[in-house]
Amino acid sequence: MLLHKLKAFGLIVLMAGISSCGIFSSDKTLPSGTRVSVLADKVPGNMTTTKIPADSLPVAVVNRNWTQNGGSSNHIMGNLKVSGNFKQIWEANFGEGGSKRNLLLAAPVIYAGTVYAQDVKGTVRAFNLSDGKNLWKQKLKPLTENENDSGLNGSGLAVDENAVYATAGFGSVFALNPQNGKVLWRRDIGTPLRTAPAACNGKVIVQTLDNRVFALNAKNGNEIWKYNISAEDTVLAGGPAPACLPDKNLVVAGFSNGEIQAFNADIGYPLWSATLIDNSRINLSTDINAVKASPVIENDTIYAIGHNDLLAAVDYRTGENKWSLKIGGTHMPWIAGNYLFVLSNNNELFAVNKNDGKILWQTRFLEEYPLDERSEIYLSGPVMINSQLLITASNGIVYSVSPENGEIKNRLNLKEELPMAPVAAGNTVIFTTNEADLLAYK
User: Fold this and answer.
1) What is the 3-state secondary structure (H, E, C) of 193-225?
2) Strand 348-353 relative to strand 124-128, pairing
3) Each residue of 224-241: b (16+ CB within 10 Å) or e?
4) 434 backbone dihedrals φ, ψ, rounded to 5°
5) Which of 46, 180, 207, 419 is the most buried if burial means most Cβ atoms within 10 Å?
6) Distance set, CA 393 to CA 22, 199, 384, 419, 432 (Å)
């Protein structure tokens, strides 16, 4: 995927930027034919399509909550169910949208029938999931007025039964009362925060722009532990939310230097680190090693992808690779049953057997657009809804893709810029536009 150069925090930031079940119908005939990617040498060869049996996919189920980036603390959501005719039921604005200077980074979260959203200025709003009614808003304020000029003031959200946790680019973490938005506590880190927090087992885990990790007490914001690794001069806009698995007392975070690091969740002791960089490449000055996609933890394996062309399955005990592929990306791999679905930098969606790393199929996107127009579009996702994979494009198109063979079944044109993948809970899918509108479908 062609990256768009944008400026934030004074740095050069690069942005990566349901048909068979009646999710939505096609509004345009998709082109036929095949084009050969000039970057094909980056992808493992000997590609043959292997169909995934429909009965091997997990059954779609209705999830009640979407508590953080990736949906849950370990970033496993499976196959989500949405009933009905997939029609828009409401639209609501949550503040100021994105621009070239201030990117809209924060994805909504959903808990107990309420949607929480954060705009680029840090204001958090709550909406009723059923009808979009605005329940409250809370402006997150910096310690000094000068920090208002730093950009990226709304970095992300997480929620649990006790609070809505919000990070702000000016370097503060807030806990808000989920009923009325009142500030319960704030913790001022003093360094810009680049990504959404993770909420797990009584802790709020946050990462700073300069690769520090803080674990805070969710009740009062007190520091439990922190850890520093080397920082990078050039980073991607946003960043990965840490993954957490309480029963293994494990936290895994990704960093802008291309590493993922595992920690003991209680004391922050570093257990191991792994590098998601394709070392067979000759690194150019334009290469960026960052891990922007959130890691995924399932059972004894961590799945993670780096921008610099490496997707890997890693043993959670040792950090050793079980398998790896020369695929780079900036979006979280989606796990459903025995399969991993991941979007690459080259606008390709891959289906991979999560146990052995075998590529089952791959599908290219944006081939219907001229090259100059295609270069201005970036993709997000996937998210599995009703046994279909949803891929959103920044020009407003939502693709519905069969997980069985990668066929693009249909597409929906929302006619709005879509900077991120949708979230889903309570039989409802929420799309976020760059104008800071929530579009609810059911």
Assistant:
1) ECCCCEEECCEEEEEECCCEEEEEECCCCCEEE
2) unpaired
3) bbebebeebeebbbbbbb
4) -70, -15
5) 207
6) 21, 28, 16, 8, 12
CA separation for the pair 83, 405 (Å, rounded): 23
Please give the full DSSP string across 344-402, using - where no structure is assigned. Answer: -TTSEEEEEETTT--EEEEEE--TTS-HHHHTT--EEEEEEETTEEEEEETTSEEEEE-
C-alpha 246: how far from chain center: 21
Provide the β-strand partners of residue 167.
Answer: 156, 173
Sorted by where each starts, the structural domains of the chain and their CATH numbers stand as 16-441 (2.130.10.10)
Here the tokens at position 331 are: 């979006």
What the block records as the tokens of 332 is 């979280």
Residue with tokens 């079940």: 21
Cα(162)–Cα(52) distance, rounded to whole angstroms? 41
| CA–CA dist 118, 410 (Å, integer) | 30
Assess contact for 129 and 110: CB atoms under 8 A: yes
Structure tokens at 206: 């946050």
- In whole angstroms, give the CA distance from residue 66 to residue 261: 25
In this structure, the chain runs to a length of 442
* Residue 238 near residue 259 (C-beta atoms within 8 A): no
Q: Can you give the pLDDT of all 442 residues of the chain as single tens digits? A: 333 333 333 333 333 334 444 465 444 333 333 323 333 334 454 457 899 999 999 999 999 999 999 999 999 999 999 987 889 999 999 999 998 888 899 999 999 999 999 999 999 999 999 999 999 999 999 887 665 555 568 899 999 999 999 999 999 999 999 999 999 999 999 888 889 999 999 999 999 988 899 999 999 999 999 998 876 555 556 679 999 999 999 999 999 888 999 999 999 999 999 988 887 655 444 477 788 999 999 999 999 999 888 999 999 999 999 999 999 999 999 999 999 999 999 999 999 999 999 999 999 999 999 998 988 999 999 999 999 999 999 999 999 999 999 999 999 999 999 999 999 999 999 999 999 999 999 9
Tokens of 329: 């990306």
Contact 186, 172 (CB under 8 A): yes
Q: Whole-model pTM?
A: 0.88
